[in-house]
Amino acid sequence: MTATAATIRPLPVIPHSSAMPSLATLDMSEARWFEDGQHWELFRRLRREVPVHYCPESLFGPFWSLSRFDDVMAVDTDHKRFSSQPSITLVNAHPDPARRNTMFIAMDQPKHTEQRKAVNNIMAPMNLAAMEKLIRQRVIKIIEDLPVGETFDWVDRVSVELTTQMLATLFDFPFEDRRLLTYWSDVATTIPPGRHDDEAWAKRDAILLECLSYFKRLWAERENGPPAFDLVTMLAQNGATKDMPPREFLGNIILLIVGGNDTTRNTISGGLHFHSQNPGEYEKLRQNPALIPNMVAEIIRYQTPLAYMARRALVDVEMHGKTMKAGDKVAMWYISANRDETKFQDPDRFWIDRPNARQHISFGFGIHRCMGNRLAELQLRILWEELLKRYPRIEVVGPPVRVSSSFVHGISELPVRLG
Predict the structure, then answer these.
(1) What is the 3 state secondary structure string of the chain?
(2) pLDDT (tens digit, 9 = 90+) per residue, 269-306?
């Protein structure tokens, strides 16, 4: 099966509104705040006035919001009092375990570490070093094929293409079908506005089962084959993962697809947009390309491609005079923590030589820290190294189209012209 217009169907449209609420009734899980860009002011107010904020009612039920850097870090590294099960988003897990897509990032110890180890070595430093030549070859091919003097969508031609090619390599996925990986990632992270029995949820689940069916074929081909260095073979042949039930296999595949797609893809798009808004920083970069590694960290901080991760309190925990009860959902807002005035000087400034740019929390911390963080940084570094050699002028000619989500902080379209 090839990724054609017939197989890749449009995602559902989410209703939009721009009314600004009071903090007493604020629901930060509403995608509209992020689509409108109003989330920055809302998080500033939360950090200043209500750093531990309770939302009594939302599409996903009540939950707490943590907006300050130190508080997010404290919970993210405290897996004994805060659980990742059954979900690392605010979306309620399906009440029927047989229909619940479980994944190791949404597991507690010891199963989390056992399953993570099955695939973690693919990101070992020596393996990343071996990938660098391939990534550079692909980057050069992608950017040298871009039209000069014509407007095109940077997201589609660069951000999606580079990350999707990398995903296809990591999974040893049929290259001609690689755009299915992006499609499944978008479906998995698009939250319909209804409950589990809503038609939109059923359609979403049906598409993800198509993903499962495809990967089951790859699994069957590799489970008894020779050892190989791809994620499907590693899962199929490791003792901790080879007997996973179908929904657990699907959950882990989705996790690896989203993890390999959204962080890099949206940071590539965001980085170009930030430079267009800050031409002085781009000129600084052109004059001193040695700033690229630090700039990459600053782009990741400034974009924060995944806005939050969620936990469940295992015991009553008091913070800033508020008590999060055992069983309560807690959203750790990485996107707010990365703009915390007490952690980052002038945090709303895009500053490519920021002294502490690498102290961002975009990849999380603790046992669930993103295992693909170095690969994301590697792809971004190589891309900017090669762009600077070829295109002294990259013009963003229109506003970005933002992803309608409170979880994925992304850009779906960015019109660009090369000069």
Answers:
(1) CCCCCCCCCCCCCCCCCCCCCCHHHCCCCCHHHHHHCCHHHHHHHHHHHCCEEEECCCCCCCEEEECCHHHHHHHHCCCCCEECCCCCCCCCCCCCHHHCCCCHHHCCCCHHHHHHHHHHHHHCHHHHHHHHHHHHHHHHHHHHCCCECCEEEHHHHHHHHHHHHHHHHHHCCCHHHCHHHHHHHHHHHCCCCCCCCCHHHHHHHHHHHHHHHHHHHHHHHHCCCCCCCCHHHHHHHCCCCCCCCHHHHHHHHHHHHHHHHHHHHHHHHHHHHHHHHCHHHHHHHHHCHHHHHHHHHHHHHHHCCECEEEEEECCCEEECCEEECCCCEEEEEHHHHCCCCCCCCCCCCCCCCCCCHHHCCCCCCHHHCCCCHHHHHHHHHHHHHHHHHHCCCEEECCCCEECCCCCECCEEECEEEEC
(2) 999 999 999 999 999 999 999 999 999 999 999 999 99
